[in-house]
TrEMBL record:
<keyword id="KW-0560">Oxidoreductase</keyword>
<dbReference type="Pfam" id="PF01266">
    <property type="entry name" value="DAO"/>
</dbReference>
<feature type="domain" description="FAD dependent oxidoreductase">
    <location>
        <begin position="33"/>
        <end position="385"/>
    </location>
</feature>
<protein>
    <submittedName>
        <fullName>FAD-dependent oxidoreductase</fullName>
    </submittedName>
</protein>
<dbReference type="GO" id="GO:0016491">
    <property type="term" value="F:oxidoreductase activity"/>
</dbReference>
<dbReference type="InterPro" id="IPR006076">
    <property type="entry name" value="FAD-dep_OxRdtase"/>
</dbReference>
<dbReference type="InterPro" id="IPR036188">
    <property type="entry name" value="FAD/NAD-bd_sf"/>
</dbReference>
<dbReference type="GO" id="GO:0005737">
    <property type="term" value="C:cytoplasm"/>
</dbReference>
Length: 429
């Protein structure tokens, strides 16, 4: 199932991004050492790091650069994973667990390093991420989370209700914790910056080029595009995430392709803006159906969260976020909303990124869990190293079989049921 019904152009990021590099659709069959399918963070990072190693790489993007989650997310660059360090040590053991913690903890570093190293035209700020706690139990979890990262050498700190209110500009949270490694970017400008860097390194990048089929041909792989042109390569790296997972059998049922919705106000007046996230942090909270919010580089207030599983039908599908925004920040009541947009995310069964190698020469990366900007940039670098050397030791997670969600055909029903249950448990804002 290809989610291409809702266009990218209504999103805030499409209206304020740096221009993309010039690209075109493929017009003739080609050969490469490596074919990368998907022009988002993971695919372009893979291509960049392969090209820097002198490996001939072609990238095929079905639509425009960043059409999927890379151009639709909230622009928060948050290191780590959904699982805390102690959980990862229990799940993977002391050696692999420690390696995964180190990998996940450094993902934001890589993003900001690439922006600087390649002189990308990407508005960005790095003042940290606040996780606001909405219940006493959630506050205890946030405090434990901060302590676990402190033991890993991170200057994380807990926040009481007064400090959280001062940093966030709202008194709706009991406290939380602050991770100083995090920050914010213009996400579409960043993925376009990755594309420019990959092209400059020697990668070949084609847009508006959907792949209709992917098949083995002796020792090679052959991708056939919708226009009929083919790309033949020894290795393939598939990085479509929630947009195009149906290209490989059984991959789509291994994720829940939920929709996340966002709204953005018009740029706030200096007086209003001064009282909202005054030090430039980004925030998401501890709700099961979490809220995430930030200011963009032009002073708009963004609010994101879950919406209908289906594609949107009109402004009413964003009304819940607009109500929440005014409850949290009454001072924005009456400020017009300038943008409403949405995008698909790939939720895996264990809330971890997945790597699959269903056949020799085909590597599949899927699953972001709200950490996609940094996680998938770093995953691209790790996958490039593996493709170049064949050494799996540098991969952050083990290569695993594809496993479908149970009763996948009924996912809309049970996702809606879970959403209703979570809303009841989360309570009001």
């Amino acid at each position: 199932m290809r989610h291409d019904m809702f266009p990218l152009s209504p999103a805030l990021w499409a209206a304020t991004a740096a221009p993309p590099p010039p690209t075109s659709a493929i017009d003739a069959s080609q050969r490469a050492d490596v074919l990368v399918i998907g022009g988002g963070y993971a695919g372009l990072s893979t291509a960049l790091h392969l090209a820097q190693r002198g490996i001939d790489v072609v990238v095929l993007e079905a639509r425009e650069i960043g059409f999927g989650g890379s151009g639709r997310n909230g622009g928060q660059v948050i290191p780590g994973l959904k699982h805390d360090p102690d959980d990862l040590l229990r799940m993977y053991g002391p050696e692999r667990g420690a390696n995964l913690i180190q990998f996940a903890g450094a993902t934001a570093d890589l993003v900001f390093d690439l922006i600087a190293r390649h002189d990308m035209d990407v508005p960005h700020v790095r003042q940290g991420w606040i996780q606001g706690a909405h219940t006493p139990r959630a506050l205890a979890v946030a405090q434990q989370r901060a302590e676990q990262w402190r033991r890993q050498g991170v200057a994380a700190r807990t926040l009481d209700s007064a400090e959280a209110a001062s940093l966030l500009g709202t008194d709706r949270y009991l406290g939380g914790w602050l991770d100083p490694r995090a920050g914010a970017i213009q996400p579409l400008s960043y993925v376009r910056g990755l594309a420019r860097a990959a092209l400059a390194a020697g990668a070949r990048l084609y847009t508006e080029t959907p792949v209709d089929s992917l098949q083995r041909s002796g020792a090679d792989w052959v991708a056939t595009t919708s226009a009929g042109a083919t790309v033949t390569a020894t290795r393939v790296v598939m990085c479509t995430n929630a947009y195009g997972a149906d290209l490989w059998p059984d991959l789509q049922p291994s994720i829940i392709d939920a929709n996340t919705f966002q709204v953005a106000t018009q740029p706030l007046s200096p007086a209003i803006r001064a009282g909202i996230l005054p030090q430039g942090q980004v925030c998401s909270d501890t709700r099961n159906l979490l809220l995430y919010f930030r200011l963009d580089h032009q002073g708009r207030l963004l609010m994101g969260g879950r919406g209908p599983f289906r594609e949107p039908r009109g402004p009413a599908d964003w009304a819940h976020l607009e109500r929440v925004m005014v409850k949290m920040y009454p001072q924005v009541a009456g400020v017009p909303y300038e943008f409403r947009w949405c995008g698909r995310v790939a939720i895996t069964r264990d809330y971890l990124p997945h790597l699959h190698e269903p056949e020799p020469g085909l590597l599949i990366d899927i699953g972001c869990q709200g950490r996609g900007v940094g996680l998938q940039t770093a995953m691209g670098r790790a996958m490039a190293a593996y493709v170049a050397t064949g050494d799996r030791a540098g991969l952050p997670v083990p290569v695993a079989p594809i496993q479908a969600f149970p009763l996948y055909g009924l996912r809309r029903l049970y996702v809606n049921a879970v959403v209703t249950w979570y809303r009841m448990r989360d309570g009001g804002v």
